[in-house]
């Protein structure tokens, strides 16, 4: 795993603390260290131990990839591996993912990585991508780009403004939580895509609404979905920690019947 580190560990820790809006005192109390020692670490006057870096990363809820970066900045080797999904040791993960995907048929489901690139999907996802221009389906396939691009799913999303606001909101929060420059660049790109419908700044439910639906036109049918997100609960590998499984469910009996018939 190759990682480039420019900033010292103290500066990186302070950036993460500021991003989480946690004071030095609160972090020191939760991590059970003195505020004086934490201040010395952040200003570079004290070099933290490996255990201290890991402890602070845990209490700041820093992603595993960035915890490795903190360790490298402090002069230590990364603690968390990053095996490719095709690696032999990931066989149990691949099997679990495929079982989840296959078990969700005839409803669409997909697995994405940290950058929203498609990792795997079940057969039913093809229903949503049937009208997408082939260029957007050449690897790596970014599911957010496919969804909101004017030559992707966007012309068939009946509530595009609402669904666009939902997706951009999720991505914006992810950028704030991870400080990932790749995701920030993707957010800028997606914001530049045209949308003829009003895009709400805040998701406010209407009468009887309990979730933001995806309303999609497939040929002559109008389908309505809601989605759930699943992640691995106890990841110790960067790749596993960053996998996200999104499963779509029919939000009305007509959609369910249409999918079962197909």
UniProtKB/TrEMBL annotation:
CDD domains: HTH_XRE. SUPFAM superfamilies: lambda repressor-like DNA-binding domains (SSF47413). InterPro entries: Cro/C1-type_HTH (IPR001387), Lambda_DNA-bd_dom_sf (IPR010982), MLTR_LBD (IPR041413). One of its GO terms (molecular function) is DNA binding. SMART domains: HTH_XRE. Residues 13-67 form the HTH cro/C1-type domain. It comes from the Bacteria. It holds the Pfam family MLTR_LBD. PROSITE patterns: HTH_CROC1. This is Transcriptional regulator with XRE-family HTH domain. It comes from Amycolatopsis jiangsuensis.
């Amino acid at each position: 795993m190759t990682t480039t580190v420019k900033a010292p560990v103290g500066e990186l820790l302070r950036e993460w603390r500021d991003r989480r809006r946690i004071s030095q005192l609160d972090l020191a109390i939760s991590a059970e260290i003195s505020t004086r020692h934490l201040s010395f670490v952040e200003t570079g006057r004290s070099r933290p131990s490996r255990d201290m870096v890991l402890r602070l990363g845990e209490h700041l809820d820093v992603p595993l990839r960035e915890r490795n970066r903190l360790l490298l900045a402090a002069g230590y080797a990364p603690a968390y591996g990053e095996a490719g999904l095709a690696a032999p040791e990931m066989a149990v993960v691949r099997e679990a993912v495929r079982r989840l995907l296959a078990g969700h048929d005839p409803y669409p489901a997909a697995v994405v990585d940290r950058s929203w690139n498609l990792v795997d999907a079940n057969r039913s996802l093809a229903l949503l991508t049937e009208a997408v221009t082939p260029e957007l389906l050449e690897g790596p396939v970014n599911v957010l780009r496919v969804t909101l691009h004017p030559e992707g799913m966007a012309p068939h999303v009946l509530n595009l403004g609402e669904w666009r606001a939902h997706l951009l909101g999720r991505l914006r929060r992810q950028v704030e939580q991870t400080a990932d420059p790749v995701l920030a660049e993707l957010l800028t790109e997606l914001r530049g895509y045209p949308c003829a419908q009003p895009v709400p700044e805040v998701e406010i439910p209407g009468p009887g609404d309990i979730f933001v639906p995806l309303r999609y036109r497939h040929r002559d049918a109008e389908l309505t979905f809601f989605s759930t997100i699943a992640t691995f609960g106890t990841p110790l590998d960067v790749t596993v920690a960053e996998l996200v499984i999104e499963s779509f469910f029919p939000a009305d009996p007509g959609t369910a019947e249409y999918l079962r018939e197909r």
